[in-house]
Design a protein that fits this description.
Blueprint (H helix, E strand, L loop, with lengths): L28 E5 L4 H12 L3 E6 L2 H13 L5 E5 L5 H14 L5 E4 L14 H29 L2 E6 L12 H21 L4 E8 L5 H9 L1 H8 L10 H12 L10 E4 L8
Helix pairs in contact: 1-2, 1-8, 3-4, 4-5, 6-7
């Protein structure tokens, strides 16, 4: 009987490599507005660990510098910091011009600047209304408008706006904030349709109550608030900033290239609780 000598079996086929959990972000230029603390800072760090080049923007230069150092510490190969006040059209235009001159067209724009308002509707002043809408609605619109031409020139871009569970729910004292966030989610959908032919995807992430420095300050002033908010969340706890970043990374990366106009709720079931 014939025997083959010196022939070994083929080596086993190695298992397929794990897919890139954040495809399309390595080397991408991401601009994060509102990156100095809280959710915006967590998003910036997550983008840094995903290989994105970063431009961080916020009002407070000291907090912005801290956020920049944290992004560098987790491996960002390129991270710039540019002060911006989203209440100022001139400041937004200067940010967009700085990014264009120094870095080129961004692939990703995250709008995470925020302002909080809790006041009975009968006590809301015109100044209260303007302050919240300037930061939560007009600012994101002007920022998207400022960066869209550069994205359109590349034929591709990802915008992720930070909306809120309050865009779809209401409570006493939240009228101004609810209106601004609902407007932002609707604006997200409107621009997604208008800019789809340009290759720009526009989506939003809507967190529930999230443990940020600002919310912790409110808990210190009103200890009952924490329990009240937690009681509305079926998963039984408040969110933390890292709960939000996965949704942002998905919408920022190429895995979501066929998703646009969507508001993704990260709310622990808040909207469906009674």
């Amino acid at each position: 009987m014939r025997q083959d000598r010196g022939v070994t079996a083929d080596p086993p086929t190695p298992p397929p490599a794990d897919p890139d959990p954040h495809p399309g972000l390595d080397g991408a230029l991401a601009v994060v507005v509102g990156a100095s603390r809280g959710i915006g800072a967590a998003i910036a760090e997550a983008l840094a660990t995903s290989g994105a080049r970063l431009v961080l923007a916020a009002r407070d230069p000291d907090r912005l510098a801290t956020s920049r150092k944290r992004c560098a510490a987790v491996g960002a190969t390129e991270v710039d910091a540019v002060p911006v006040d989203v209440r100022s059209p001139d400041s937004i235009a200067a940010l967009a011009d700085s990014v264009r001159r120094r870095h080129g067209a961004p692939t990703v724009l995250v709008n995470s600047a925020g302002a909080v308002a809790t006041k009975p509707a009968l006590d809301v002043t015109a100044g209260d209304w303007d302050r919240i809408h300037e930061v939560q609605l007009r600012g994101p619109f002007l920022t998207m408008q400022a960066f869209a031409p550069a994205m359109a020139a590349e034929g591709y871009g990802k915008v992720v706006n930070l909306s809120s569970t309050w865009a779809a729910t209401v409570a006493p004292g939240r009228s101004t904030y609810c209106a601004a966030k609902a407007g932002l989610s609707h604006l997200t959908a409107a621009l997604a349709v208008e800019w789809a032919p340009l290759g720009i995807r526009v989506n939003a992430v809507a967190p529930t109550a999230t443990r940020t420095p600002g919310l912790e300050e409110r808990f210190a002033a009103d200890p009952a608030l924490e329990e009240s908010l937690r009681g509305r969340i079926p998963l039984g706890r408040l969110a933390v900033p890292t709960d939000v970043v996965g949704a942002v990374l998905f919408l920022a990366g190429s895995a979501s290239d066929f998703v646009t106009g969507h508001t993704l709720y990260v709310d622990g079931g808040w909207r469906f609780a009674r």
